[in-house]
UniProtKB/TrEMBL annotation, chain A:
Residues 1-11 have a biased composition (Low complexity). Residues 1-21, 424-443 are annotated as: Disordered. NCBIfam families: pucD (TIGR03196). This is Xanthine dehydrogenase D subunit. Residues 28-134 form the Aldehyde oxidase/xanthine dehydrogenase a/b hammerhead domain.
From TrEMBL, chain B:
Keywords: FAD, Flavoprotein, Oxidoreductase. PANTHER family: XANTHINE DEHYDROGENASE SUBUNIT C-RELATED. PROSITE patterns: FAD_PCMH (PS51387). One of its GO terms (molecular function) is oxidoreductase activity. Signal peptide: none annotated. InterPro entries: CO_DH_flav_C, CO_DH_flav_C_dom_sf, Diverse_Substr_Oxidored, FAD-bd_PCMH, FAD-bd_PCMH-like_sf, FAD-bd_PCMH_sub1, FAD-bd_PCMH_sub2, Mopterin_DH_FAD-bd. Residues 1-170 form the FAD-binding PCMH-type domain. This is CO or xanthine dehydrogenase, FAD-binding subunit. The keyword Phosphoprotein does not apply. It comes from the Bacteria. The keyword Flavoprotein applies. Transmembrane segments: none annotated.
Length: 761, 286
């Protein structure tokens, strides 16, 4: 009798803390980011931008710039060969401004030179004759009859009207508020960068840090007047994105210069230019009213949300869609009237940023839930638990929430976590508001606790054809089985490359998985946004792996003379039902490679009704709750966040460490908006385009966090996954704001909360 | 742009005299920002990091002579006991990396109204030692050194050699308000030094006027009211009145970092608290 050898189980599968392939390189500073791109023969491109929020361009004189030694090209709108327009949803934004500039920082001309400094000096010699025009910089005026028009079609980008239940509901308890959210920046650490290389076929190869290669390609082709096969994109190392790389930046510009000069062209923004070079989070002005029974049970909501879209449409319409359809939070409302507007102004364009419309609304609905709690005399956790949606409920668009909706449990979990200890008699300065600024030794310091629970759609909504493509190949090289995964999905730091490896290891039972660089040689993966890639590209990789596995097992079945059923892949071997090794992959595959390409879609979503906003707009919802504990120096208005604890349902944690990392980062980003992060815009001018004055939380601002990860599988999603990246950004800020309100007793109806708001000076 | 690298103090002064267009650079924590943002294009950079004399400090007759090139990190570790106010301010400068590079001399050279070193130097009554090849050395009281927004009393051929600060004879405090808890430019700052040996009070205000400045009237008021002999507890009302006088000495503006009203308000709070802490320290030391 012989004992069958059992295959060693493949490690690094889903559910394990697999190591990132790019982790060590990033920590040791060796990872090549887009700003490290280099070509021996390259020249540098720079952009001349508008100093005015609104002006007519009478004339551009580039003569003097062309005389600067080392300059190889100076381009203006006249040099755009295709359509001088791009845009994610509407192609309304010129590649280079032609007749008008509509925001400060709009690109007007390009220079290529042998050194970036030379190019900058030459750009300074371009003479642009502007006729400065009145600028519309107050979004609240955008829809007035006498407001200056940003575009000929009017200043409305989208109005989402949502009506449900009774037309004129009444309730015994009514609370209301106005709320304002300032403009947040994605503040990714790696500014916009790319390298365009002219190709022998007359086309161009572009290496660029981005979030969605194929939507870039489509827009570049339009502007260059070239077919997609001539415009090939490869993802360069991305240093963070958070939505700020959904719109084009250097893409068309670098290609134009490369095609004109016949040389590789590198473009790389500095930090100041980066602030002008990408869209920001929409500032919001909101009015909310909730009606409730005396016990706090919600009866109705009315909400008016105004988002300042800035000068071009970008993704404003979709952000309005989220702010409208999800803008009342994860609560049951029998009757609802919501009007969400996105408008054009001459402010910097706003578009995608982590949380996408839900972030702004959450500050308003969560502040109002606290008001309601106070009005009916219950605590903030109880008011939310009492009204929170559950699986099977309909949300405000009438859509049934058909997987876990653990609002009450998430709240209970954060509420049950131990509270941080009170400050000791003689605290370390670093534990106090103001820290080593030595502004208090405990005087004026009061503690506050705040709660928040929010939800967010995962994936693209409202009928968008949201899919991803994966190509998976399995072969034996040098005696070792290797799976190769090829997608166009952008790794922006979130860990998708690791997830792809884990899925391939799980499905194919091989240890070695190579994720090749993302490029346009394979079909679209959709955007790395909307918390969707683990779900959608993960789903595509899983499906492609399953197709490969089926093909391999069919070969094995024939070779082994056994039925396919009962065969599996594990530990680089074909195994039987008991895990016993039946054949090595090399025996089955020989020198052949098995390759499959799959285009994978999640369940379809649907447009909402234009009159009522009703419809199954979203494919999945992700829920999170936060509890913030803050110490506020009430005399100076300084805040120290003492604890920021959270619970989030992730469906299935493919890589638990990475999930917790996402939740840490998202929580810090939401906290940043609550307390300090704001692009200050006055009369259309950005006043703080630097990290000196655009403040991001430091290690002394972000507390250690307790993270409770729940895994209630979504039966409709691959492995049950639920998007992870955005929810913590949405619920953390409102919890921090609530904690500050609790500490100082001020209403604080604007974020970021500034010290003078707390001190009322 | 030329890069000039003298290796001795005499050579540095000679180069300075020849090249009035050269911008001195030590840690580079201000200069490099200006260059990177293209706000400044000097004809040359005069690198002072190889001038050994600037990297030293010494004590003579109860006064520290702090070389202009001594970085903040060393002020904290080597002079924290003798110059506590300056060390507290140094601790609030940027990040650890910045504190290793940035120097008090560079702070004086930039003469920003928000320079963290300035308020404690004002409160301590420091003197800035400057020198030129042609006229040798002179000393400028720090209160006269700041002549306008980012302007100082240096002649075009002069360099900052050192700053002279009396070692602390009494408690010192430095407080700085920023909108985050580290790595932040002051929205307002206040330094206080008690000089029990001569029953005097020193103050310095930062980020709340075109230049760093003293609150002279508040100093005299507090010095006159304090119970120097009996060391009785500081009445809350006195601390409050002192705070109001400090706030009145400021001439703040609204800008992207804060409002004038908040700057004034915060100075009143900081001055009140600092006076209380310092006086309590003095009482405890008695």
């Amino acid at each position: 009798m012989t004992t069958a050898q059992t295959a060693a189980r493949t490690t690094g599968r889903i559910g394990e803390n697999a190591q990132r392939p790019d982790g060590t390189l990033k920590v040791t500073g060796e990872f090549a980011y887009a700003s490290d791109l280099w070509h021996d023969d390259m020249v540098w491109g720079v952009t001349l931008r508008s100093p005015h929020p609104h002006a007519r361009i009478r004339r551009i004189d580039v003569t003097e710039a062309l005389t600067v030694p080392g300059v190889s090209a100076v381009l203006t709108a006249d040099d755009v060969p295709g359509e001088n327009a791009f845009g994610l949803e509407h192609a309304d934004q010129p590649v280079l401004a032609a007749e008008f500039v509509r925001y400060e920082g709009e690109p007007v001309a390009l220079v290529a030179a042998d050194h970036p400094e030379t190019a900058r000096r030459a750009a300074a010699r371009i003479r642009v004759d502007y006729e400065v025009l009145p600028a519309l910089t107050d979004a609240r005026r955008a829809l007035d009859d006498d407001a200056p028009l940003v575009h000929p079609g009017g200043n409305l980008v989208r109005h989402l009207r949502l009506r449900r239940g009774a037309e004129r509901p009444t309730a015994p308890v009514v609370v209301s508020l106005d709320f304002e959210v300032g403009m947040q920046d994605q503040a990714f650490l790696g500014p916009e960068s790319g390298l365009a290389v002219p190709a022998e076929d007359g086309g161009v190869d572009l290496y660029v840090a981005t979030q969605w290669l194929h939507v870039d390609q489509r827009q570049i082709c339009l502007a260059l007047g070239m077919p997609p096969e001539k415009v090939r994109l490869t993802l360069a190392g991305v240093g963070g994105a958070f939505g700020g790389r959904e719109d084009l930046s250097v893409h068309v510009h670098a290609c134009l210069l490369a095609l004109r000069t016949g040389r590789p062209v590198k473009m790389s923004y500095g930090r100041e230019e980066s602030f002008h070079g990408h869209v920001h989070r929409h500032p919001a002005t909101m009015t909310y009213e909730f009606g409730a029974e005396c016990d706090g049970t919600l009866v109705y909501a009315r909400a008016h949300v105004l988002l300042d879209g800035g000068a071009y449409a970008s993704s404003t319409a979709a952000v309005v869609g989220n702010a409208g359809t999800l803008g009342l939070g994860p609560y049951r409302f029998p009757s609802v009237a919501v009007d969400a507007y996105g408008v054009f102004t001459h402010n910097p364009p706003c578009g995608a940023m982590r949380g996408f419309g839900c972030v702004q609304a959450a500050f308003a609905h969560e502040a109002l839930m606290d008001e309601l709690a106070a009005a009916v005399g219950v605590d903030p956790v109880e008011i939310r638990r009492r009204n929170g949606v559950q699986e099977g409920d309909r949300n405000i668009t009438g859509q049934v929430i058909d997987s876990a909706a653990p609002v009450a449990e998430l709240l209970q979990r954060v509420a049950d976590l131990p509270l941080p200890p009170a400050l000791p008699e003689q605290p370390d300065l670093r534990d106090l508001p103001g820290a080593v600024g030595n502004t208090t030794h405990g005087e004026g310091v009061r503690r506050g606790v705040g709660y928040s629970v929010t939800y967010k759609n995962v994936g693209f909504s409202e009928g968008f054809d949201d899919y991803s493509t994966a190509r998976v190949r399995l072969q034996v090289t040098g005696g070792e089985a290797v799976a190769t995964v090829h997608t166009a999905a952008a790794e922006v730091g979130q860990g998708l490359v690791t997830v792809q490896q884990q899925i391939a290891r799980t499905e194919l039972g091989v240890e070695q998985v190579v994720v090749v660089p993302a490029d346009t040689a394979v079909g679209s993966a959709g955007s790395t946004s909307a918390s969707r890639q683990t779900y959608v590209t993960g789903g595509a990789v899983k499906a492609a792996c399953e197709a490969v596995r089926t093909a391999v097992l069919q070969r094995a079945a024939i070779a082994l003379g056994r039925p396919v059923a009962g065969l599996a892949l594990d530990g680089d071997k074909v195994v039987g039902a008991g895990g016993e090794v039946l054949a090595g992959l090399a025996d089955v595959l020989g020198d052949d490679a098995v390759e499959e390409t799959v285009e994978w879609r999640h369940r379809p979503t649907h447009a909402v009704d234009p009159e009522t906003g009703q419809g199954d707009a979203h494919v999945q919802f992700a829920f999170s709750a936060h509890r913030a504990v803050v110490d506020v120096d009430t005399e100076l208005g300084l805040v120290k966040v003492v604890a920021l604890d959270t619970a989030q349902d992730v469906g299935k944690a493919i890589n638990p460490d990475a999930v917790v990392g996402q939740i840490h980062g998202g929580s810090a980003q939401g906290m940043g908006l609550a307390l300090m992060e704001e692009v200050v815009v006055t009369d259309g001018h950005v006043r703080n385009p630097s990290f000196t004055d655009y403040l991001l939380p430091t290690v002394l601002d972000v507390p250690p966090m307790r993270v409770e990860v729940l895994e209630y599988a979504d039966p409709h999603a691959p492995y049950g996954v639920r998007g992870v990246g955005e929810p913590p950004t949405i619920s953390s800020g409102p919890a921090v704001a609530a904690a500050v309100r609790a500490a100082c007793g001020k209403p604080l109806r604007r974020v970021p909360i500034r010290p003078e708001h707390i001190t009322c000076t | 742009m030329d890069f000039l690298q003298p290796s001795s103090w005499d050579e540095a002064l000679a180069v300075r005299a020849e090249r009035p267009d050269a911008l001195p650079i030590a840690g580079g924590t201000d200069v490099m920002v200006e260059l990177n943002f293209d706000r400044r294009r000097p004809g040359a950079l005069l690198d002072l990091t190889r001038v050994g004399e600037l990297q030293e400090w010494s004590i003579d007759d109860g006064t520290v002579r702090l070389g202009a090139g001594v970085p903040y990190g060393r002020v904290i570790t080597e002079l924290g006991d003798r110059l506590p106010g300056l060390a507290m301010a140094a601790r609030t400068v940027g990040s650890p990396q910045i504190r290793v590079r940035g120097t008090v001399g560079g702070n004086l050279g930039s003469a920003s109204p928000a320079g963290d070193a300035h308020p404690p130097l004002l409160a301590a009554g420091a003197e800035v030692e400057v020198a030129s090849a042609a006229r040798g050395t002179r000393r400028i009281p720090v209160a006269e050194f700041f002549t306008g927004v980012k302007r100082n009393a240096l002649e075009p051929d002069e360099l900052i050699a050192a700053v002279h600060v009396r070692t602390a004879r009494g408690p010192q405090q430095f407080c700085k308000v920023g909108t985050r808890n580290a790595m932040v430019i002051a929205v307002s700052a206040f330094a206080l030094a008690l000089h029990p040996d001569r029953q005097a009070v020193g103050t310095g205000i930062g980020s709340a006027a075109p230049t760093p400045r003293r609150a002279a009237e508040a100093e005299e008021f507090l010095a006159g009211e304090l119970d120097w002999a009996g060391r009785a507890a500081l009445p809350e009302s006195l601390a409050q009145a002192f705070g109001e006088r400090v706030a009145a000495a400021a001439a703040p503006i609204d800008d992207v970092r804060g409002t004038a009203a908040y700057r004034r308000h915060s100075l009143a709070v900081l001055a009140r608290r600092a006076a209380t802490w310092a006086w309590d320290d003095l009482r405890r030391a008695a």
